[in-house]
Amino acid sequence: MKKKVLSALMATVMVTGLAAGCGSSAGDTKETKDSGGKVKITFMSRDSGDTPIAKVYEKQIADFMDANPDIEVQNDSIYEEAAYNNKLKVAVSTGETPSIFYYPAIAGLTEWAKNGVLLDLTDALESDPEWKDSFLDGALDTYKLDAYGAEGIYALPNELNVDAVFYNKALFEKAGIKETPKTMDEFYEVIDKLNAADITPIGVGGKNTWVMGHIFNNILAKRIGPEGIVALGTGEKKWTDEDVVECLQMTKDLKDKGAFAEGFEGMDYNTQMNQFLSGEVAMISHSSPIIPEMLATESEIKDDIAFFPFPSFTDKSEYTDTRVVYTSGWMMSGTMSEEEEAAALKLVKFMTSPESIQERMDAAMRVAPYKNMDAPENAPQLFKDMIEYTDTISESVGEYFDYDTCPTLVDVSRNGILNMMLSDSAENTAKAIQADVEANRP
Amino acid sequence: MEKIRRNKKVICIFLLPSLLIYLCFEVIPVFMSIYFSFNEWPGIQSVPLKFVGLQNFIQLFQNEIFLKSLRNIGIYVVISVLLQVPLGFGLGLLIHHFKRGKRFFKAAFFIPMILSVTAVSLLWNFIYFPTEKGILNNILLKAGLEGWMQQWLVNPKTSLICLIIVSTWTSVGYYMIICLAGLTSVPDSVVEAGALDGATGLRKLWYIYIPMLWDPIKMSTIMVITGVLKIFDTVYILTPTGGTNNSTIVPALLMYNEAYRYGHYGTGSAIATVIFVLSAAVSLISLKLMNRRESVEY
Amino acid sequence: MNKSKNKKKYSVGYKVSFGLFLIIALINIYPLVFSIFCSFKGNLEIFQSFMALPEKLRVENYVTAWKVGNIGKYFLNTIILAAGTLFISGLLGAMASYILARFRFKAKKYVYFIFIAGMMIPIQAVLIPLSYVFGKLGMMNNYPMLIMLYAAFCFPLTVLILTGFMNSIPTELEEAMVIDGAGIGQVFFKMVIPLTMPGIISVSIFNFIQVWNNLLFPLVFISDREKGTISMGLLAFFGEYSTNYSASMAGICLTTIPIIIAYVLFQEKIENGLMSGAVKG
């Protein structure tokens, strides 16, 4: 009996102690230096393993440590999405946020920004005009969260994912298609011609709901434009508005027009890529980082791959030049000690120096939002075309949920869109998404 | 002997080492998690917990998706118990009677247990592949049963049962091993005596094996119930979004999303608490039911 | 006459069930064969024909897996962790189970329930509290601590199964030993452990699988890459836009096949060897 009381007591003491600790301020000073007097910082990206980009990061971190023997950088990068997310969320919740990390959100960062998880980079940028000036005009504004109630810049854009429709030239020829479609009507014609030639037009791995989500996002960008998408995110506009429902309906109509393979809802993304790379389907909707991935495979159609911008709507000519570009950025921890912060800034500046960026572009074909970048001479034509195309983009918008602080929107909308493809109506889907946004927007 | 069995010193020496490790590493975190479920917390260290009482639970039970997940997990548990325990023990009893190939058979059922989820999910994805290229659909096509072909994991009518089949396949080996271990620790003389009394076939199963293996059967049932109620991996890998119209959504998947993806840590912990309470209740009820049948002393 | 007739009848049933069983067993082995096939295929090839034999043997997948997944080092690390966990959970778990099965004290029911309750909590639910404790106490990358953590999560199942097994051992044997003058330690190690060996081995197999496939704990509690585990190594093949299934399957084969062989070779040996030393009732 005594033991029972003892253990219960112990448990209670520890629970209250730890829970109080969990909620306490981040003020406790951490051990920042190891025994050798080195400042230790952590770098956590989604690039690990044997990919070209991961190898460049490894090399750059090693170079940095050689040049700065007083700093030790631990590379905690994990490629796999769920594992990455688990590790990062646990780190943030215990106050061990990595010094430099990646997280796919913009408005979704607000909660972190407000609570000191993230470092406001405004001062650092202001104090180094040359560095600040090296970013593409407007690129730094991507992570300005003033509109959501957190003043400041909370991430450095480091990569541009430019959306496009990649297609197989040989299959287009086979179906008698001479020109790539510029408008949606032309796009529908292309679909019909491909179907007539017994070729599946668009490969979609519906099980990975982001694939269908990206197609919807492109339609949205071309119909309600960047202002519309931002208004949707801030709540000025509703999902149940007629024009948004219309976009959902158009996404659903693609299926009825025979754009996708039978059973695409149950296929996964790997199947989709395989279908495209083995010449079974004519097109995929994707973004620029897929270029090196496709070219690294043993596919026989590699030389036939080209791309065209997502088609526009003739009745919405004001958005003809609107392009979907997803920015990914580096966030920095707001709970670092002064020494750590200085070291982390040093690393991030090193990583965003023109040489480093050029190195990553050369080795891993990454498109970065910095000035004066050129594709190397010996780069594959597909990548050169992409760089050239990126330079022509004057107006761009990201993912609709990036502009919304509602954390559940990404899942609810993407799952909703897939359900809509299967059975639900556009109206019901819009209603369900709107209800979720209203319930879960903080 | 009676005296030894009450000796406090012996009890402490034998029990305390494991109990202490267990308390520190599991019980305390569990208590913390339960404590979290009465609070609102965005998963940020510097934000203090905000006590909200039962609000997280009230909201949960008003949430349609959560109720659906409870319904799904209920079906999952019932079918799994009825499928996995009899299957595992049936296989175990058969293997026990085989004179040759025991090792081979044991190894065969060990494979699904040890094989990494990556391999398992890739394989089942191919089996359930939605077109006629899929292994299952292909077999149906060749058997002339085109009408039966399905988008197995997409169709809300088939997706849950498909998942139950996968988890049965990966875990039947556990119960087979428990059954075999139970059989080895039981004296052969009991069975022989029973056989001499004229018990054969089903009678032998009913009057000798089941009573003899009753304890292992009870343990296995508890294992199935507790294992299924917190099931996550199989569901997440084969239907990451919880299926069409939430047809395969389960509480643990919702919990994961709330806590790790949406930053609703309190809600996530509340779901964990519900899983815990349900699990305890169902286990206790089934133990009560099964204890009616006394295990035989020999 | 009568006897031989019975025997014949028995052997037909035996043959049928044996044959049926063989088929089920072969279906179970198929995933392994499938993994081996995939490990020799190219990435595109895997998706083109699910069941087919590899076009050619791509041994380079294994080279990639070994290097990128750091398989050699991680295999050893995982074995060390697993061995430590099995020892702690087996020994301490058996001790606790013995008390819970045989001894009498007031809180027994509750202690038993607390142990079993551990099976009812999803592991993700305790990850944040745990990592808070671990981080605060500086237990990151600490193998002895990790072994205790793993063992703690193995105790519920261990106690459930071993208590059940110990319940079914006749008590007379123990009493006889005590009357002969043996202490409780002797009774436990010389009789209870050998008699419950089948149970201990079964539960150790389960615990091994737990440690082997656990990704969350090493993911969160190991940051030193030299100390990683197999499950972490296999993550290296998953990408945002592509999964290197070929290398991943090669890695799975490299790590799983030795375990299956070890299981086949040693399981019965350990069981029989230890059982023979026991007093069989």
Give a short summary of the structure.
Chain A is an alpha/beta fold and 442 residues long. Chain A has 18 helices and 9 strands.
Q: What is the average per-residue confidence, as pLDDT of chain A, rounded to a whole number?
A: 88
Category by helix and strand content of chain A: alpha/beta
Q: What sequence of helices (H) and strands (E) makes up the elements of chain A?
A: HEHEHEHHHEHHEHHHHEHEEHHHEHH
Q: Based on CA inertia axes, which overall geometry of chain A fits?
A: globular
CATH architectural type of chain C:
Orthogonal Bundle
Tally of structural domains of chain C: 1
Question: What order do the helices and strands come in, and which of them pair?
Answer:
The complex is a heterotrimer of chains A (442), B (298) and C (281).
Chain A: H1 2-23, E1 39-44, H2 52-67, E2 71-75, H3 81-93, E3 100-101, H4 110-114, H5 122-126, H6 129-133, E4 156-168, H7 169-174, H8 184-196, E5 200-202, H9 210-223, H10 225-234, H11 242-256, H12 269-277, E6 281-287, H13 290-295, E7 305-308, E8 322-332, H14 338-351, H15 354-364, H16 381-392, E9 395-397, H17 409-422, H18 426-440
Chain B: H1 8-36, E1 39-40, E2 50-51, H2 55-62, H3 64-97, H4 102-114, H5 117-127, H6 135-142, H7 159-184, H8 188-196, H9 201-212, H10 214-229, H11 233-238, H12 251-261, H13 265-291
Helix pairs in contact in B: 1-13, 3-7, 3-10, 4-7, 7-10, 8-9, 10-13, 12-13
Chain C: H1 2-40, H2 43-48, H3 60-68, H4 71-102, H5 108-117, H6 127-136, H7 143-167, H8 172-179, H9 184-195, H10 197-213, H11 216-221, H12 230-235, H13 245-276
How would you describe this protein?
The complex is a heterotrimer of chains A (442), B (298) and C (281). Chain A is α/β, with parallel strands linked by helices. Chain A has two domains: 26-161 and 324-401, Periplasmic binding protein-like II (D-Maltodextrin-Binding Protein, domain 2, 3-Layer(aba) Sandwich); 164-312 and 407-440, 3-Layer(aba) Sandwich (D-Maltodextrin-Binding Protein, domain 2), CATH 3.40.190.10. Chain A has helices at 2-23, 52-67, 81-93, 110-114, 122-126, 129-133, 169-174, 184-196, 210-223, 225-234, 242-256, 269-277, 290-295, 338-351, 354-364, 381-392, 409-422, 426-440, and strands spanning 39-44, 71-75, 100-101, 156-168, 200-202, 281-287, 305-308, 322-332, 395-397. Chain B has 298 residues and is mainly α. Chain B has helices at residues 8-36, 55-62, 64-97, 102-114, 117-127, 135-142, 159-184, 188-196, 201-212, 214-229, 233-238, 251-261, 265-291; strands at residues 39-40, 50-51. In chain B, strands 1-2 form a two-stranded antiparallel sheet. Chain C has 13 helices and no strands. At the B-C interface, helix 1, helix 3, helix 4, helix 5 and helix 7 of B face helix 1, helix 4, helix 5, helix 6 and helix 7 of C.
